[in-house]
Design goal:
This protein is an alpha/beta fold. It contains two helices and 16 strands.
């Protein structure tokens, strides 16, 4: 299992400790409490895990994981600042929050999150999958067209529907008419 050594670095004013697994020197972690099970695999020396991260399973290769929950999948780089990562591959970019349940993120061009939005002031996230784009918002998970239908059914043409429709228009500008 993983252990922290006395070797430290300072990053963003935080003290991180070298992670080892047997004789293998790995990356850096602020607190082993972030690693919540033996289903987490840490590889390489280029990762930084900060105190508020919660890693439950999956493979962490490189990048910075500041907070949020990582359930499964592979993290290959970039920065994850919060939210829920539920599977798939994150290969770069900066994720500031939201819910990601699969797909492959290769850059910041593959997803977008907007918060606070809607009647609950939650996080709207859209990301690329093998089959197009998927939207998450609260308990909703589905395609952009399914989201548009759910907004119309739930909100009609009220203030929240207008917010969501404006976000969908922004998504069309960012990702093209593929939605």
């Amino acid at each position: 299992m993983y252990e922290l050594t006395d070797e430290t670095i300072e990053k963003y004013g935080r003290t991180l400790y070298r992670v080892i697994n047997g004789d293998d020197k790995l990356g850096w972690c602020e607190d082993l409490d972030s690693i919540k099970s033996d289903k987490v695999t840490l590889e390489g020396q280029d990762f930084y895990i900060f105190k508020h991260a919660r890693l439950h399973s999956g493979v962490f290769h490189s990048g910075e994981f500041w907070g949020g929950v990582f359930h499964s999948g592979e993290f290959w780089g970039g920065e994850f600042w919060g939210g829920v990562f539920g599977g798939g591959e994150f290969r770069g970019g900066v994720f500031w929050g939201g819910v990601f349940w699969g797909g492959v993120i290769k850059s910041s061009d593959d997803f977008m999150s907007i918060s606070p939005i809607g009647s609950e002031g939650g996080v709207f996230t859209i990301y690329k999958t093998e089959n197009g784009f998927e939207v998450t918002r609260g308990c909703f998970k589905g395609s952009a067209s399914e989201f548009i239908d759910a907004v119309e059914k739930t909100h009609g043409d009220n203030e929240y529907a207008k917010q969501y429709n404006a976000v969908i228009e922004l998504c069309k500008i960012k990702f093209g008419e593929v939605l």
